[in-house]
Amino acid sequence: MQGCGNAASVHKLRNFPHSSVASAQKVKAANKVENVEEGSLLIVVLDLNPSQRAMSANPKGFNHTLEAIIAFANAHLMLRQNNKLAILACHAKSSEYIYSDRDSSIVPTGQNDAQYELFAHVERVVRVGLKRFISKIEPSTGDSLLAGSCSMALCYISRMQKEKPVGTTLNARILIITGSGDSASQYMNYMNVFFTAQREGVQIDVLSMEQDLGLLQQGCDITGGVYLKIPHQNGLLQYLLWVFLADPPVRKKLLLPPPVKVDYRAACFCHRQLIDIGYVCSVCLSVFCKFSPICTTCHALFKTPGPLPSKPKKKKLKWFYQYSYQLSFMGGRRIGRSRAVLWNWVVSRATGGQTVRLVPGKCDSRRIDGLLTVTPPHSAQQSHVRERQDFASSGNRLCSSQQSFRETARSCQNRRVTSVMQVMWCYVNFEVVLVVAGSVGLQVFDCDSLELRFSHPCRDVPDDREHFARGLAHTPGDYICVGNNSGIVRLFGTSEGGSLMFIDRKQFHGSPVADLTANKELLASCDDAGNIVLSSITPEELVQWADISSYGCACTSIKMWKGFLVAGYGSGHIRLFSINENRREVSLTVEVAAHAKWITALDIAPESGFILSVSEDSFAKVWHVVKGDNVVVTHRFSTQVKDCMLVGGRFLTLSGSIFAVSIYDSNLIQCFKM
């Protein structure tokens, strides 16, 4: 019977073979999981910027902070045998490892009955590393390089992941301890770090001391980390052990502080400031605080999406009389898509409204298809005399039909001038010539026949790269200066035979030249980075003798008048600089917040000192420079073209009583009288 019982039990087991095998597999898998060695890599990024409020307000509290961090690091190593640790220190100039498991430059200390050997080693290495790092810190007011330190931490994590033994797992996380404020200038660096950490599965935790950090809040939310702002440093160790000691899987079982509301504002690429509403390039996803028809990152061209927001129209001064009218431009052809205006000429209406009078002008356009020109007066002197005449009087040379415009444009297009950046009339060698800067370089045309007199490619880049000449200036000494997108300024003069010739070229700028202006023997040039360079014009070369550093935005237009240099900026500011040619000094005299958006053009009336500024905010304003003990710039007149972006402006008279403006993506020019 016993044998039968055994046989029966064997028979019963054989009736359930699947159940027994499945149970064995589960047990084996469980044993396999238990055999996997799991470790945690913690990288602490410590901000040691002396300018942070937490350190400047309580310098003696640094020792307390250091002891808390060392105790927290030892507690992390004590949790599990396979835990790893690295500590990074950073300030405004550099970042450096002060402790890592890979560092063998310091030999571990000997046995100490009062302290575990590993803990003593960590404390000694951290203190020596901090002493070495702090001794290199120089006084600075810049932002801490937290984004760069996080990049170094991610590289360290990637290297440790590749070097880990087979059969082990390493959970990595980054803890940032800082008392500095938010740094919007590192917005792109932060975003690259956050999304890289998210892709690699690395959590970023932040402990902020007395500061609200919007960008780091975004990083914690993106990577799944914890953001904590502590009210004071006395309880630093308690906060570290309570919130940040546990690994991410364990935190789900702990009662931690509730997550904070994340500030997801983006920083604009132009001013590096956090904004609530902005414009995004659909090509490269760059963010801008104001609309620009050209993306400064990828140079894509855009059209105005709709009516631009504008300020409420201010009440005009009652002693000013204003009127405006519109004229067609080049038979219906629109002004090019750029932030500047094509001023081949300035137009004014003749009696009866059927004819137009043409006056030499200026062009500031980036991309205009075809060369738009008209026949100018016989000389610049005659044009100035005409400008002094009554505004309603008609000139001797009238162009009353659009056919004349078309024929002129067609004759110039046959000369393969495909992109015009700037045009101006010059009085060279006792005659008026038309000077053109564009994609083919510099070209000089005859006044009457439009015959090409002189050309120069002005190219400093390979043929397959984009090239254009921009920025023109003319001096009474028959000198012509032109800039290009390589930041180079060239000087041309007249030979003994009266023909134009090349004299000199200088690399004054590292960015594309935006505008030039000249006064006697002095030349000023500005670029898209906002830098201004002043140089002397000699018969042999250009000699730089002063420069004005950038104010953080592009310098779009510059003019010189009676010892002053007037500059318009992309931030909407007008800055008036005083020039001392004897001492070769330039100093800022007056700064005016003229517009809410990009200033597209400036002009100065030589007789009155009026300054005309037009902007993308749809306003055209006139300012007056009052010279005395203290130079003062006063507001005289303003007008608004509703729902339009103004891209250029110019005075029609030497006194500045009449001016004209042009509109973005429109074939209309509007004139105003004060």
From TrEMBL:
Q: Which SMART domains match?
A: WD40 (SM00320)
| Gene3D superfamilies assigned | von Willebrand factor, type A domain (3.40.50.410), YVTN repeat-like/Quinoprotein amine dehydrogenase (2.130.10.10)
Give me any GO biological process, just one. regulation of DNA-templated transcription
Instruction: Output the Gene Ontology terms for molecular function.
Output: zinc ion binding
Q: What ranges cover the WD repeats?
A: 592-633
Q: Boundaries of each WD repeat-containing protein 54 beta-propeller domain copy?
A: 419-672
Q: Where in or outside the cell is it found? A: Nucleus
Q: Which UniProt keywords apply?
A: DNA damage, DNA repair, Metal-binding, Nucleus, Transcription, Transcription regulation, WD repeat, Zinc, Zinc-finger
Listed PROSITE patterns: WD_REPEATS_2, WD_REPEATS_REGION
- Give a GO cellular-component term: transcription factor TFIIH holo complex
Predominant place of localization: nucleus
Self-association or partners: how does it assemble?
Part of a TFIID-containing RNA polymerase II pre-initiation complex that is composed of TBP and at least GTF2A1, GTF2A2, GTF2E1, GTF2E2, GTF2F1, GTF2H2, GTF2H3, GTF2H4, GTF2H5, GTF2B, TCEA1, ERCC2, ERCC3, TAF1, TAF2, TAF3, TAF4, TAF5, TAF6, TAF7, TAF8, TAF9, TAF10, TAF11, TAF12 and TAF13. Component of the 7-subunit TFIIH core complex composed of XPB/ERCC3, XPD/ERCC2, GTF2H1, GTF2H2, GTF2H3, GTF2H4 and GTF2H5, which is active in NER.
The entry's family comment says: Belongs to the TFB4 family.
* Known function: Component of the general transcription and DNA repair factor IIH (TFIIH) core complex, which is involved in general and transcription-coupled nucleotide excision repair (NER) of damaged DNA and, when complexed to CAK, in RNA transcription by RNA polymerase II. In NER, TFIIH acts by opening DNA around the lesion to allow the excision of the damaged oligonucleotide and its replacement by a new DNA fragment. In transcription, TFIIH has an essential role in transcription initiation.
Instruction: Specify the protein name.
Output: General transcription factor IIH subunit 3
Question: Which organism does this record belong to?
Answer: Apolygus lucorum (Small green plant bug)
